[in-house]
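New to this. Look over this protein:
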Amino acid sequence: MASNHPSVEDLEVFLGSTSQAASQARRSQVIRHLLSDCALCGERLRAMAWDHHRLARLLDPKEETAKTEEIRLPRRLEEYDYSRAFDRTERAVSALLSAERQGLEPPALLLAELDVLPANEQVRRVSAGGPFVSPSIIESLVERSHASRYQDAEKMLHLAHLARLAAEACSPADAGHDLRLADLRARAWAQYGNALRVLGKAREAEDAFATARRYRHEGTGDPMLHAWLLMKITPLDTFQGRFHNAIEKCEEASQIYRDLGASHLLAGAMVQKAIATLYSGEAEGAVRVLNQAIPLIDHEEDPHLLLAACHNLILCYIDLGRPDQALQLYSETRDLFQEFKDPLILLRATWREGKLLRDLGQLQTAEATLLRARKGYMERKLAYEAALVSLDLAAVYVKLGLVDKLKRTVLETVPIFHSLRVGLETLASLLQLQKVADQEQQALELIHALSARIEPLRRPRIEEN
């Protein structure tokens, strides 16, 4: 290598080869140079989608534990003991850059063929293997599942289920390497877990995420995958009231994104941190995090993320008892909300508007708005949201003094609570609301207490995972 720099050809041969023909000394020499602070080779490496931070994390991946210390990378990578890491690095880098086996048909044609089949036939075809288990098909199914999150939660789960089945049927030869196959399975199982979580199936989601974590540990150690997986798991922690764990995961993912210079992904992690902070009862802290995240968001690249940040900032102001400020922000971002035709986004906007109208004293309009929101959530079998909207509606009836409508709303909400498997004490409190329907202060306090019991069960209001 002239001037001790590996040429582009040297890098391509090294990074793309899984052959044992190259001498260990030669491979170690290339690794050592790749991990130096050489500006020239750094540019070449970035052109191949690798920078020194990403390689550094590949050498010293951060393992997931219940309690982890913040990792701090040394200023210079020469501080690492390379001798113990070369074998793992060579294998992982080679796996990440190895080519997958190409299928006989383009992914778009195969997916179009799959789309016209009934759901049970789709499952059978994918489970049987063949052309439907290629990495490109699996990645497409994961992406399509994610894209369905605001339109159809059950479709999101179905597509993630197909991705999981295809990943399990995929072979190392199809994936290009056994480590890449493990990464692929980690992605599919994580998306499956996220879809389960969206539908309120928390226990099944936990099992799916455990499988995803196991596969990630068996894979390349890619730090970007690790951060992506953390951001998939975070909403479940928030969903189940483990706010501290959720915030820790967001901070760990944020550190990875900072190291990789991925400012937009960093913004997403910060929005998730703000959601967990808001749910923990620290609305002021959530406002601070959101105000730091919003300037980092690329609206053109991901308008949903900007929407999520603004939506949750409005909710912070509502929780802080500042409806005028919430209404002002809502007015400023109304056009942004109208850009989206996603049913779940529009439902959340309707719910948010109903709460704002209620808090501003426009009770008749708030009633009509909240009734629309509740109907939409019940049609989509989203029980957590339906339960909370019902309680918001009950508060409107208390303030209006409409005792009969309040009692009817309570009776309509009982089966929703049953579907959430709440405790007998919570059900008893809901029924108690009928007895105090004509006592405004006591009824409102009871509604507030019921909302506090249900709220931790609910998934984040708008999530970006």
User: Anything to note?
Assistant: Residues 11 and 30 are 8 Å apart (CA to CA). Residues 16-25, 61-86, 459-465 have pLDDT under 50 and may be disordered. The two ends are 44 Å apart (CA to CA). Residues 178-198 form the longest helix (21 residues).
